[in-house]
């Protein structure tokens, strides 16, 4: 009987100890667990490349957790403005995202460009039939004989009165609706979809030398794959060359100074981004995060500049 009572008391003591350890562990993990850095992005090849590169820098170099949040362009701006996301590195300014900037500029912090040399507009193939040059040495004309946006109306039948677009809330789609109104293209339809569906349509058209016009932008890997050109925009609806900016929520500087400092220093070139985008397109066996790590490992001095305190 005494032996049984001893066993019960021993079990109770160990239960208390285990319970106390569990409570301590929970309390410790809560006390030391840092909130992840929340980075908003859009499923565009440029945004995917930039977001994954920044995530890799935050996790591999700063030792902090980082979570990517995929959303639409308008949702991305709204998320940073309301604090649902900490930052984004995909703000196309001054033209493409002008309406978002005007709406949210008082609720966000613009750290400036992380890439200069962007362009948006309507894009067509500039691919010749047969050999590039004729027997005279003169370059053959591309199979699509059109150079400017106003000329599209003359070829509405060949184009099936369609402009192939991407997600409806993208800045380039707003600009394209404006362009269609400016150039009196009421007979044309702007086809909504995604970057993937737009590229699929472009690929199919080029393979059969069909007429097509798409919403396009630089930097993008399609310009490395095919001969393409922007149509002239005499009314300058799409604006001139621009930049991609880093936008952060208010309070990030005070709460995550190390992260904010790195984001402020982050800057790369269209060629750099183009390389990562091409890797993402070509190497189907790797995830974008691994491509970002590959780029960082092959450009160690660039990462040091961004992270230098």
CATH fold field value of the largest domain = D-Maltodextrin-Binding Protein, domain 2
Number of domains: 2
Spell out the CATH superfamily of the largest domain. Periplasmic binding protein-like II
Rg estimate, integer Å = 26 Å
User: Architecture of the largest domain, according to CATH?
Assistant: 3-Layer(aba) Sandwich
Order of helices and strands: HEHEHEHEEHEHEHEEHHHHH
Unreliable parts: 16-33
Beta fraction: 15-25%
Q: Report mean pLDDT, rounded to a whole number.
A: 88
Question: What is the β-strand count?
Answer: 9
CATH class of the largest domain: Alpha Beta
Number of continuous helical runs:
12
Would you tell me the structural class of the helices and strands? alpha/beta
Description:
By secondary structure, the protein is α/β, with parallel strands linked by helices. Helices cover 45% and strands 18% of the residues. The chain contains 12 helices and 9 strands. Helix 2 (45-61) packs across helix 10 (270-282). Mean pLDDT is 88; it is low at 16-33.
Brief sketch in words of this structure:
With 309 residues, this protein is of the alpha/beta class. It has helices at 2-32, 45-61, 73-82, 98-104, 171-182, 195-207, 222-225, 252-255, 257-265, 270-282, 288-298, 300-307; strands spanning 37-41, 66-70, 87-93, 108-125, 162-164, 189-191, 214-218, 228-230, 242-249.
Main features:
single chain, 309 residues, alpha/beta, D-Maltodextrin-Binding Protein, domain 2, 2 domains, 12 helices, 45% helix
